Amino acid sequence: MVSLIEQIDKMTSQNVLVSDATKSEINMAIAVAVSNSALFTTAAQKPPVGPGGFITISRKKLLQNLEISGAARLNTWVDSMKASSPTHIKSTPSLCQDQSSWILHHPSALEMFEQITKASKGKQIVMFLDYDGTLSPIVEDPDRAFMSDAMRATVRKLARYFPTAIVSGRCRDKVYSFVRLAELYYAGSHGMDIKGPSKGSKYKNGAHQAVLFQPASEFVPMIDEVYKALLEKTKSTPGAKVEHNKFCVSVHFRCVDEKRWSELALQVRSVLKDYPKLRLTQGRKVLEIRPTIKWDKGKALEFLLESLGFANCTDVFPVYIGDDRTDEDAFKVLRERGQGFGILVSKIPKDTNASYSLQEPSEVMDFLQRLVRWKRLSLRRQFRVRRRFEEMATSLAN
Ligand SMILES: [Mg+2]
Q1: Which of 83, 239, 287, 322 has a CB 3.0–4.6 Å from the CB of 251, allowing a cystine?
Q2: What is the mean pLDDT of residues 268-276?
Q3: Signal sequence: where (predicted)?
Q4: What's the CA-to-centroid distance between 370 and ligand 1, angstroms?
């Protein structure tokens, strides 16, 4: 079986980054992008308005709308921006019904804690954590998305018991500057920039001790160029914030008036049309521009498992916690592998491949703390049992 790392070596050495099929899709998208006839919403194109007054579009549809495709239209961009970034959620009876049926399918990881630890019995748990909205609250200024000291202490303890990786859309250096724990693995830029622990981790494996993997390094000059173009283009939209994530660029619209979202989408699209090797995806109040290589948080998860020596292992139990659509790639990988599970951080029902849910970062912290306590207790128990056996063996020998 060809390992993922071998596949990657092949992919990067051949520089085969964009398939012909993808190229033709991109060309179609550019053709549509330059056509002004696609700028106006018709009733038929409007997505359904969901309970609570915000728009719901299935994840698949969002993907169809946002990934570069022949059907890409400005109005669907804006609708999708609204769908993944609801600005008003009202409490209505139907929303409550939706919520309770969703919770049945994606129960709270806190309530299911015992079942979860039972399922992990005899297996090595490996933790994957998204950053924004998972370890830190979503805040107006993305530069100030700090995690609390209590959360940092929790993650530090977690990494003592389980190999732990932070997987984020942000630039790796940026996410490290927030987390500041050298004993973790970091996968920045949606997994396109991976580095192993610089110190203090017992979970390092052979040749990949200083894992450093950057499958999109040849895109750096293009990303620099697009960053500058977006900065210039969006400066007339108050509140828009362009963030350089080394291998990708984020355009945050958390502080942009909803009335100006279409203007911003138009600006971003006008820059992107010159870069067919880049694609656009979307997170919570953020547009993400990244290379069209087939690499995402799911691939990063597989790469890290392989680097840790769990490539073809059946006794590994990966747990991925994230709040974003980009985390779905990782949830999907876990479902397909039939190993471990994903936990979606969300207060509202969402179409997801995660098995469980947590409402917000404070619940994530509770879950991680319980995991640490459980592991500590089970290690103590094992230690006591071993000591008892040793004592018995000594007394029998005498
Ligand atoms: Mg997130």
Answers
A1: 287
A2: 94
A3: none
A4: 22
Tokens of 42: 């018709």
Average pLDDT over residues 278-288: 88
CATH code, domain carrying 370: 3.40.50.1000
C-alpha 298 – ligand 1 centre gap (Å): 14
pLDDT score of 57: 38
What does the alpha-carbon distance between residue 194 and residue 212 come to, in Å, rounded to a whole number? 5
Whether residues 321 and 246 fall in one domain? no
pLDDT value at position 73?
62
Q: Quick check: pTM over 0.85? A: no
C-alpha of residue 66 to centroid of ligand 1, in Å = 18
Q: Check residue 75 and give its pLDDT.
A: 73
Residue (of 278, 300, 301, 282) closest to 291 by Cα position: 278
Assess whether pLDDT exceeds 70 at residue 250: yes
Across the chain, mean pLDDT equals: 80
Q: Which residues are catalytic?
A: 130
Domain extent at residue 328: 122-215+295-382
